[in-house]
Design goal:
Blueprint (H helix, E strand, L loop, with lengths): L22 E6 L5 E6 L2 E5 L2 E6 L4 H8 L2 E7 L6 E12 L3 H17 L9 E13 L13 H13 L4 H16 L3 E8 L4 E8 L9 E3 L3 H9 L3 E3 L16 H4 L19 E9 L2 E10 L7 H23 L23 E6 L4 E4 L2 E4 L1 H17 L3 E3 H6 L12 H15 L3 E7 L2 E6 L3 E6 L2
Parallel strand pairs: 14-20
Antiparallel strand pairs: 1-2, 1-5, 3-4, 4-7, 5-6, 6-7, 8-9, 8-13, 9-10, 11-12, 12-13, 14-15, 15-16, 17-19, 18-19
Length: 453
């Protein structure tokens, strides 16, 4: 007697939930009249639940509200195998991580198909899966399974754990994505809690680094993933005009009387076909977001999402450990104001606008916000006191800097400032000299002009 096959699990058919092929849903009215309709999105929630996209108040919706039982036919895009789910409707969610994640994914599908005006998510209908059937029929030969993701996560965790500084950590996380997950385009963004914006601190694979570019919380794939603290994955080409990485703010918006361009171009692909953003969270606090993309359709599957979530978790924990270890528990005596070494050449003209701490080197914009306030303080004390040695602790204690009380991400802001200087001003450098200490190195004199707000 042939033993019975074990029951199917949702995890075993997760490829069916990638959105590559629409599902078919059958419902029944109170009088027994059947109805069949295509469903744009069936989302894996957990081993017992799925979520379907609610977009129209149509016959399917009416039937479900009157009779909560339905069946959904799914197709595995890799094998062409059919599976039937027997479902029971539980509830509709119109906000929260599940809704926002499905909304973002549906926006990608809509822009890909030219149906942005039609594909509008009204809610996420959550169903309990009561049974799963495998439908008999011919199937494609099985594809070669993809190996190495779990091993890649392990090696990534080992490399991240070995980092002793924030700048090293940020470069390492991009390197491990490239080396172990075959990801060529990626970036790390950190949260500025005061402005509720994410700013790019590291990137790889782009023509320009985009360090310092910003995204508002809630905008685009990255902003939604950060706001809802949930992964957002889109597997089709998105419309750059309606669902892009556009920088959402500029000095013209915040300071309309000041006609100066302070936008830094975001380093995204011009035509991304796959995108995946995951939040960086530690101890329940949002620190930033990790983002990857590809010019290939269906590049990131659910296993890639799982791997990136694990790596982002390690990154968040490592960032917090480095932050708490940034200074000794009992701070040592502050260093004396060291004399700056002699410099030669024409002075570097620097303008510091105190209204929003934007800094210009000559006519070129460099940085603004907290990082701009930090550079303004360093250059002011360098000019007035010939001082070049500083500590993280004194920056945190200076109210003019404007660091938040919790999760100030000071090290990340210093890394941001350091990289912007390397890219745009070779005559000014910030060098780490020890635990919680750094040096301002000037190759030429500076002519600092501070402009009141």
């Amino acid at each position: 007697m042939t033993p019975a096959s074990p029951p199917l699990s949702l995890h075993a058919i997760r490829a069916c939930f990638e959105g590559a092929i629409p599902a078919i849903m059958s419902t029944c009215a109170e009088d027994g009249t059947p109805n069949v309709a295509y469903i744009s999105q069936v989302n894996y929630v957990d081993e017992r639940h799925v979520a379907l996209s609610f977009q129209f108040f149509n016959k399917t919706r009416q039937n479900i509200l009157a009779n909560p039982y339905s069946s959904v036919l799914l197709i595995d895009p890799s094998s062409a195998g059919y599976y039937r789910l027997h479902l029971r409707y539980l509830r509709t969610e119109t906000s929260g991580p599940l809704f926002e994640s499905m909304k973002a994914q549906l926006a990608g599908i809509a822009s890909y198909s030219g149906m942005a005006g039609v594909f509008r998510l009204l809610g996420s209908d959550v169903y309990e899966v009561e049974a799963i059937e495998s439908v008999e029929g011919d199937r494609l030969p099985p594809q070669t399974p993809r190996f190495g993701l779990l091993a890649g996560v392990r090696r990534s965790a080992e490399r991240l754990a070995a980092c002793g500084a924030t700048d090293e950590l940020l470069q390492t996380v991009l390197a491990v994505l490239n080396d172990h997950l075959d990801v060529r385009h990626a970036m790390v963004l950190m949260l500025d809690t005061a402005t509720q914006r994410l700013y790019t601190v590291a990137s790889c694979g782009y023509a320009t680094s985009g360090v310092g570019s910003e995204i508002e919380i809630g905008h685009g794939v990255i902003g939604v993933a950060a706001r809802e603290r949930t992964p957002v994955r889109i597997s089709h080409m998105t419309n750059a005009a309606s669902y892009s990485h556009a920088v959402r703010s500029s000095m013209r918006e915040t300071e309309p009387g000041l006609v100066l361009d302070t936008e830094i171009c975001f380093p995204g692909l011009p035509e991304p076909h796959s995108q995946l953003a995951v939040p960086i969270v530690s101890s329940g606090r949002l620190l930033g977001a990790l983002f990857v993309e590809s010019p290939q359709d269906m590049r990131f599957g659910f296993e890639d999402e799982d791997a990136l979530v694990a790596i982002a978790g390690h990154l968040g924990a490592a960032l917090e450990l480095l932050r708490t270890a940034d200074e000794p528990a009992a701070p040592a005596e502050e260093p004396r104001a060291a004399s700056a070494r002699s410099t030669t050449g024409a002075p570097v003209p620097v303008r510091h606008y105190l209204a929003n701490h934007s800094v210009f080197i000559g006519d070129s914009y460099l940085i603004k916000g907290v990082a701009g306030a930090i550079l303004g303080k360093l250059l002011r004390e360098y000019s007035e006191q010939s001082r070049s040695e500083f500590t993280n602790r004194e920056l945190r204690l200076d109210p003019a800097i404007g660091l938040p009380d919790l999760s100030d991400n000071l090290e990340a802001r210093l890394v941001l400032l350091q990289r912007r200087l390397v890219e745009n001003c070779p005559h000014i450098r910030i060098e780490k000299t020890g635990r919680g200490r750094f040096r301002l190195r000037m190759e030429r004199p500076v002519a600092l002009t501070e402009i009141p707000g």
